[in-house]
TrEMBL record:
Key word DNA-binding present: yes
One Gene Ontology molecular-function label: pyridoxal phosphate binding
Highest classification ranks of the organism: Bacteria, Pseudomonadati, Pseudomonadota, Alphaproteobacteria, Rhodobacterales
Domain of life: Bacteria
HTH gntR-type domain residues: 1-59
Keyword DNA-binding applies: yes
Source organism of this protein record: Ruegeria halocynthiae
Protein name according to UniProt: DNA-binding transcriptional regulator, MocR family, contains an aminotransferase domain
Residue span of region Disordered: 53-83
Protein family according to the UniProt entry: In the C-terminal section; belongs to the class-I pyridoxal-phosphate-dependent aminotransferase family.
UniProtKB keywords: Aminotransferase, DNA-binding, Pyridoxal phosphate, Transcription, Transcription regulation, Transferase
Gene3D superfamilies: Aspartate Aminotransferase, domain 1, Type I PLP-dependent aspartate aminotransferase-like (Major domain), Winged helix-like DNA-binding domain superfamily/Winged helix DNA-binding domain
Length: 442
């Protein structure tokens, strides 16, 4: 229903059938359709009119005119634009179906026991299919199942690096990587970026002067800036890494959301790059299932690192994910997330303005450079005072002193579009304020 409303298949004002009639049409329980209608009202997709029925809500509806129940729910707690998660609710019915199938399957017993490499063969085959959808062909023996992308990154660092080794990352990067480097006693260096992403010449300078062991990067829908690295820059970076013997750690968890992304680094330089993907951003974060694609020479070390950290990726969740991939459901859910992302990106641009957000990305986050005079910490605090959580740009910086005055907005964690719209309007209102003296950048 949410997808059909977002794509216009169910135009605003459309009168929906009574939930019992819809249950009969779909051959499901009336309780199911009743709960679905309730969830849609909660998300401000529908409105109910006593004596008339249920209608698709207008996108221009004033949030203050929402139904009392919607208002009660939407007013509870801060509006959270700080968590970069996919839209919830799409995967539940499919995962419920697959879990029911597994529960009635004679193979359930084997999924509750320790697994050997041979047992994992069909899970790696599903990973091969998922990797192909990301634009990467892979050999079965080079695929390593992991417990989500973050676990995969930690396993890579554990397998490749020793205390004191130098890890490079983009100057603005995925924050947990900084914590991992500190925990493993690694040095970390920030590679300069511009409006097109990481600068190849800056990477080469690090290679010439400092002997880095690996370079972690998110070339597609970069976290946090949303930049997607061009094919030309990818080729240049792959060439530099190959020449200097630096392993590229390509975090592509956002890749499935990008409809027209360039080739993965792991395809350009298969022996120099480890590719990290997961189902977290496109299917369901709670599954905690992902895959590494490793160069042949590193696959065994990565398998060992996974064994050391968790012994094995949980077979039961791997089986759920594998079935979703194999029957095409994962691809369908990814398509839904892509469409919702576009709709919400357009909402951001409509509320904040084209001058503020001149270019849309395909992902669920927006990088907002603040007007002159605003300090990001003060802007973030003002949003928080007004009930909206955002992420300060400095929290992603390897060198805090070099961080731009910017914030990241995530537009997917809030399922209720009334709350999202209200949060964005608050952010837009703060942007229109004239910074006070204490807000001035130093």
């Amino acid at each position: 229903m949410a997808e059909d409303i977002a794509t216009g298949r169910l135009p605003e004002g459309t009168r929906l059938p009574p939930h019992r009639e819809l249950a009969y049409q779909l051959d499901v329980s009336p309780n199911t359709t009743s709960r679905a209608y309730g969830e849609a009202v909660k998300r401000a997709l529908l409105r109910g009119e006593v004596g008339r029925g249920t209608f698709v809500r207008s996108t221009d509806t004033d949030p203050t005119q929402a139904e009392p129940e919607t208002l009660r729910r939407s007013d509870s707690g801060p509006i959270d634009l700080s968590r970069n998660l996919p839209m919830s609710g799409f995967s539940e019915q499919h995962i419920r179906r697959v879990m029911s199938e597994i529960a009635n399957d004679t193979g359930l017993r084997s999924l509750l026991d320790y697994q050997t490499d041979a047992d994992l063969e069909h899970h790696r085959a599903a990973g091969q299919t998922w990797l192909a959808s990301c634009g990467l062909s892979s050999e079965i023996n080079c695929i390593v199942p992991i417990v989500g992308g973050q676990h995969g990154i930690l396993c890579i660092l554990m397998a490749l690096m020793q205390p004191g080794d130098l890890l490079l990352a983009e100057a603005l990067t995925y924050t947990p990587v900084l914590a991992m480097a500190a925990r493993l006693n690694l040095q970390i260096g920030g590679v300069a970026m511009d409006e097109e992403g990481v600068v190849p010449e800056a990477f080469e300078a690090w290679c010439r002067e400092a002997n880095p062991k690996a370079f972690y990067m998110t070339p597609t829908l970069q976290a946090p800036t949303t930049v997607t690295l061009s094919q030309a820059r990818r080729t240049r970076i792959a060439e530099i890494a190959t020449r200097f013997g630096v392993i590229l750690i390509e975090d592509d968890v956002f890749g499935p959301l990008k409809s027209d992304k360039p080739e993965p680094l792991a395809k350009i330089a298969p022996e120099a790059a480890i590719y990290v993907t997961s189902l977290s951003k496109a299917v369901a974060p709670g599954l905690r299932v992902g895959f590494l694609n490793a160069p042949t020479k590193l696959a065994a070390a990565l398998h060992l690192s996974v064994n050391l950290s968790v012994w094995m990726a949980p077979p039961l969740t791997l089986e759920v994910a594998s079935r979703l991939i194999e029957d095409g459901t994962a691809a369908e859910l990814t398509g839904q997330q892509q469409r919702i992302a576009r709709v919400r990106q357009q909402l951001v641009q409509r509320i904040l303005g084209v001058a503020v957000i001149p270019k849309l990305s395909d992902g669920f986050h927006v990088w907002l450079t603040l007007p002159e005079g605003w300090r990001a910490d003060v802007f973030t605090a003002e949003c928080a005072r007004l009930g909206v959580r955002v992420s300060e740009g400095r929290s992603f910086a390897i060198n805090a002193g070099d961080a731009p005055e910017a914030i990241r907005l995530c537009v997917s964690h809030e399922a209720n579009e009334v709350r999202l719209q209200r949060g964005l309007e608050i952010v837009a209102g703060v942007l229109r304020q004239k910074p006070s003296g204490s807000s001035m950048a130093i």
